[in-house]
Each structure stands twice: as C-alpha cells, then as structure tokens.
C-alpha cells in the first residue's frame, strides 16, 4: 500500500480520527496542572542538583561536574516513562485484585527482610541493596504498598467499618511492614506511620475505634523500642540519639555532631530575599555535606532566596491540595484512600525534610520529593504520582462531569 493510499484510505482516516479522539479524551481526563507541577519541580531539582554537586563530583569522585546531573536526568526520564505506562495501561481493577495485592505484600516483606539481613549500611542505616555501583532503597517503595493495601482493605470492608475484629489481620500485616522499615530507616518508617494515620482518618472508621488504634500503635512503638534495647542496649540507635542531641543544641558541637544542621542554617540565612544567584552559593563548596541530596533545599534557599523557597513550597502545596481535593470529591472508598495516602506521603516527606534542615524537628535523613538527587526516592514518587493520575482519570471520567 502506497503512502498516498494509506493517508487517503477511508479505513486509515477512520483509524487516525479514532486515535485522535482517544487522545483528546485522555487529555481531558488528565489533570494538566498536576503534571505541569511535577515537571517543573523535577526541572528545578535538576538545576539545583547540578549547582550543588559540581564541586563534590570532581573532588570526591574525580568525575565530571555533571556526574550527578546526568544520573538524575536518567531517573527523571525513567520516571516520566513509568508515569506514561501506568497512566495508559494500569487500571484500578488491577490494583484492587487479590492476586496483585498478595504478591505485592509478600514481595515487600521478603525484600525488606532481605535488606535487614543482607543490605548495605549507609549513614548509620542498613537500608540499601547494591547491584554493582547502583543501589536501591526497598523501603521507599513500601510506602506505595501500604497505601494500596490499606485502600483495598477499607474499600472491601466499607459497609461494615464498625466491626473492628475484621481489621486484625490487615493490622498484623501493616505492623510487620512498618516495624521492618523502622528498624532500617527511621525517617521512612515515620512517613509510613503518618500515611497509616491519615488513611485511618479518611476511612470513616468510628472515632471510638481510633483511640484503640492509637493505643495499639503506641504499644507497637514501645515494643519496637524494647526490641531495639535488647538488641543494642539502648532505646534508639547511636546515630538517632546523635540527631536528637544535635536538634536540641546544634551549636554545642558545630564541628562534629552539629556540623550539618549548623551549616544548613547558615546557608538558609545567606539567601536573603533574592538569593546569591544560581551557582554562586558558598556553603555547597565542602561546608554542607549531602548538599545535593538531603540538604538540597538549603542550597536552593541560599542561591534562590525567599522567592525560590516560596515558589517551591507553593508548588508542593498545589500538588498536595489537588490530590486531597480529588480525595474529598470521590465517592469510591478505594480512590479516596489512594489519593489521600499519596498526598500524605508527599506532605509528610516534605515536612520531615524541610523541618529537619531548618531545625524545626530532628534530622531524619529523608530526601525532598522530586528535587533531591536519588533514584529510589524519585522513582517511588513517580510511581505514586502515576497511580494518583490513574485514579484521578477515573474520577474525572465518571464522577466530575
């Protein structure tokens, strides 16, 4: 068949028109503002990562200045591809299927236990698995598993939420997952606890049971601390105690325990209203460890000033509040729980990162969503964001006409 015949054939034109119709429908069901915010935050992250990592790349790795930029650009590209695949080929029915749920939970427990026994310790936390020079943090993806699992649990029991005994089995699964993560990565464990708490609030469980759940959660935390005391001889690990002491008085030991937070506060204060200018920050030049990862917001504050800080926080707020908007509008329990869970996932991680580097709370070592360098965290955010877009597509298609 010639090209002219293909372009002018009735069947071919019909297929093209059908494709364009489907494409327009997809665009109509896609929340373009959310996608734009995701892309803009990712681009800001690339710019600040390049600025923050140019010198460390050369001094510490003897690599080119764009070493971390190229790595992050690869993850951003993979993230966009993953979102496109999820949005076009994944349906909520798959996420809710019992087989998918079972495989997801069992594999998560297996990989977390494998990391606990055979993982690599980095910065005091044994939460990495390395394949050659590439490493992943399995705990980053457990957050998504917890969201999807609890969403299905509450959806399937939505007509009988007052029967608390039907939640004993799922509670055991969540405790196993959360406790396993807490032992490896306290910051990620705290985020999972926040996600679980928010999901319980959005589920509509009678308030009288929430107190029981809080009590059970407190007992579980006490048990975790007790096990840690038997294992190490202290309630918290040494690095965790160090972070608490640093939080209480970072300037008592500014050259050792308080070195990171002291230099972070200096970087933030240097930014002023407009910042020193992109690439012209000083604190990233060996004074601020982990400048391109956990403390990247301090670099952003120094170089972009208050204007840059408010811009990024504003973008994060759009992302979180849009997800909560859809969660509150939908009548489907599964959709509501997933969107609320993803929103709190983002919000909790933003709070822990920004609160830690600004001395509002103790440092937890969690990255800033979409901006900090790191493949595991970026891909975890991308998967969660892609799932949220799928849910929003269903809501816009059936509920928000």
Automatic annotation (TrEMBL):
One of its GO terms (molecular function) is lipid-linked peptidoglycan transporter activity. GO terms for biological process: cell division; peptidoglycan biosynthetic process; regulation of cell shape. It is a multi-pass membrane protein. It comes from the Bacteria. Keywords: Cell cycle, Cell division, Cell shape, Glycosyltransferase, Membrane, Peptidoglycan synthesis, Transferase, Transmembrane, Transmembrane helix. InterPro entries: FtsW/RodA (IPR001182). It is found in: Membrane. Its EC number is 2.4.99.28. The chain crosses the membrane at residues 32-52, 72-90, 102-122, 128-151, 186-202, 209-230, 304-325, 337-358, 370-392. Peptidoglycan polymerase that is essential for cell division. PANTHER family: CELL CYCLE PROTEIN, PEPTIDOGLYCAN GLYCOSYLTRANSFERASE FTSW-RELATED. Belongs to the SEDS family. FtsW subfamily. This is Probable peptidoglycan glycosyltransferase FtsW. It comes from Aliicoccus persicus.
